[in-house]
Design a protein that fits this description.
The chain is an alpha/beta fold and about 300 residues long. It has six helices and 19 strands. Strands 1, 2, 5, 6, 7, 8 and 19 form a seven-stranded mixed sheet that branches. Strands 10-17-11-12-13 form a five-stranded parallel sheet, covered by helices on one side. Strand 7 and strand 8 form a beta hairpin. The C terminus is likely disordered.
Length: about 300
């Protein structure tokens, strides 16, 4: 039985692994077989310590290498279940792994349209994060897809850099709060296309436009733009926790670093529906690891810590 088992392969997981490894807890990290969101990002200009920016995959790899340097162990595997066992928890990821504490850092995936060109131009004009990428579109034309508060926030952020922001929304009214609607509709730099859907993303090396269709008339058109920002929500990677007893909020997120299960902690986008930034994910990874270390020390002090058994 390990002291710390971390589930996830993004910057939150690697930060948690770094702190746990430096505390000599020899963490085991189950990274999953897919890419985390940061590894699909190109230039990251808002992570502290990189004045010229850093490529997303390079930042993730550097964090992982740093954790491994202090003794963190890594295995690939997609988690499919979590359950309590004597002295801790068991995570199933092909094989079964047991630990006294578990840190869940499985992230959240941005919802996409599923239209042609969307995957091809991901990080080449297609984005889900205005705070991350807005400066790349200075004086350019960008499209925002969505109608909720997130879409309004993305659009307002983009107006600080882009020359024109066009919101494409499937309905004839926004779902966003009234105050957010008022802010957006009062901006001269923002145009709204109601009852409209994006049907294709086109471009060469980068996005040059999107094909749209009016859902009332069926009329199709080509909308020239330099980028498209998706703001249609995120899905936290928590389906694998069904039946575990771990409390989730109404949207499937883990509500906080410290969970309702003693010894189980959460970090990164899986527990953060608001900020979703690399730096905040790293911060919660640190918090989760420190909480796990404290939990183990309390068990030792209480005499309930058991000698680790080899698997």
């Amino acid at each position: 039985m390990d002291d710390v088992l971390i589930v996830g392969g993004g910057i939150a997981a690697h930060t948690a692994a770094l702190y746990a490894a430096r505390a000599e807890l020899k963490p085991l990290v189950l990274t999953g077989t897919g890419l985390d969101q940061l590894s699909t990002t190109s230039l990251v200009e808002n992570y502290p310590g990189f004045p010229e920016g850093v490529q997303g995959p390079d930042l993730v790899d550097a964090c992982k290498s740093q954790a491994k340097r202090f003794g963190a162990r890594y295995l690939p595997g997609d988690a499919t279940g979590l359950k309590p066992v004597q002295g801790g928890y068991e995570v199933v990821a092909g094989s079964s792994y047991r630990a006294r504490t578990v840190i869940i850092a499985t992230g959240a995936s941005a919802r996409t349209l599923g239209v042609p060109g969307e995957k091809e131009f991901w990080a080449k004009g297609v984005s889900t994060c205005a705070p991350c990428d807005a400066p790349l579109f200075r004086n350019k034309t960008v499209v925002v897809v969505g109608g909720g508060d997130s879409a309004m926030e993305e659009a307002l952020m983009l107006t600080k850099f882009a020359g024109k922001v066009i919101i494409v929304h499937r309905r004839e009214e926004f779902r966003a709060s009234k105050i957010m609607q008022q802010r957006v509709l009062g901006m001269e730099a923002i145009e709204v296309l109601w009852n409209t859907a994006v049907t294709e993303v086109i471009g060469r090396a980068f996005v040059t436009g999107v094909k749209i269709r009016n859902l009332q008339t069926g009329q199709a058109a080509l909308l020239a733009c330099d980028g498209m920002f998706l703001a249609i929500g995120h899905t936290p990677t928590t389906a694998w926790l069904a039946g575990s007893g771990l409390a989730l909020d109404a949207h499937g997120y883990i509500p906080g670093v410290v969970t309702n299960l003693p010894g189980v902690f959460a970090a990164g986008d899986v527990m953060d529906p608001r900020y979703r930034q690399a730096v905040t994910s790293a911060g919660t990874g640190c918090q989760a690891s420190l909480e796990a270390e404290k939990f183990i020390e309390h068990r030792k002090a209480a005499g309930t810590y058991e000698v680790a058994a080899s698997r």
